């Protein structure tokens, strides 16, 4: 199964326990039964959020955040950033995830963001981390 994990899944995985952490930990550890589709724009978004937002310092240090992102970069098979598509969601910043998923025939997008979860077209489908974990016995 080929999966796009939204940046918010990685951020949640880095700062708290729960489904996002179990999904990402399983993938980073090589025990997952799914592949994660990753592009430079997604990796950059994760890095930016985890290393530059002061409010996250109470959960994760910049050093730990940098190590986490470096781990993702080491495990991920990066593909090129997707070409821009016409806006499909309420938040145009999410559209590159849709383009990434479609350009590589991903099976699902995993996100905690309402704009993707409530997106009407859902091609490919979008599920929460908890739904992904339950439906796929991903971890």
Number of strands: 5
**Low-pLDDT segments:** none
Going by CATH, the homologous superfamily would be 5'-nuclease
Q: What does the average pLDDT come to?
A: 92
CATH topology: Rossmann fold
Radius of gyration (Å): 14 Å
Separate helix tally: 7
Task: Specify the overall morphology.
Answer: globular
CATH top-level class? Alpha Beta
**CATH-defined architecture:** 3-Layer(aba) Sandwich
- Summarize the helix and strand pattern as letters: EHHEHHEHEHEH
The share of residues in extended strands comes to 5-15%
Strand arrangement within the widest β-sheet reads 3-2-1-4-5
Largest sheet: 5 strands, parallel
Structural class, by secondary structure, is alpha/beta
Helix content: 40-55%
Please characterize this protein's 3D structure.
The chain has 139 residues and is α/β, with parallel strands linked by helices. The protein has a single domain, classed as 5'-nuclease (Rossmann fold). The protein is built from 7 helices and 5 strands, in the order βααβααβαβαβα. The protein has helices at residues 7-15, 19-28, 40-52, 62-75, 95-103, 114-117, 129-136; strands at residues 2-5, 35-38, 77-78, 108-110, 126-127. A 5-stranded parallel β-sheet has the order 3-2-1-4-5, with helices on both faces. α3 (40-52) packs antiparallel against α4. The longest helix has 14 residues, at 62-75.
């Amino acid at each position: 199964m080929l999966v796009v994990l939204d940046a918010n899944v990685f951020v949640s995985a880095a700062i708290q326990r729960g489904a996002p952490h179990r999904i990402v930990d399983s993938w980073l550890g090589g025990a997952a039964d799914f592949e994660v589709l990753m592009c430079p724009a997604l990796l950059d978004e994760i890095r930016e959020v985890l290393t530059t937002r002061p409010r996250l310092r109470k959960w994760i240090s910049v050093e730990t955040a940098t190590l986490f992102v470096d781990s993702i970069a080491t495990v991920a098979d990066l593909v090129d950033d997707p070409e821009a598509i016409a806006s499909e969601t309420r938040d145009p910043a999410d559209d590159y995830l849709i383009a990434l998923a479609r350009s590589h025939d991903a099976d699902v997008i995993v996100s905690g963001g309402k704009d993707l979860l409530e997106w009407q077209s859902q091609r490919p489908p979008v599920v929460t981390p908890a739904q992904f974990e339950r439906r796929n016995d991903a971890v």
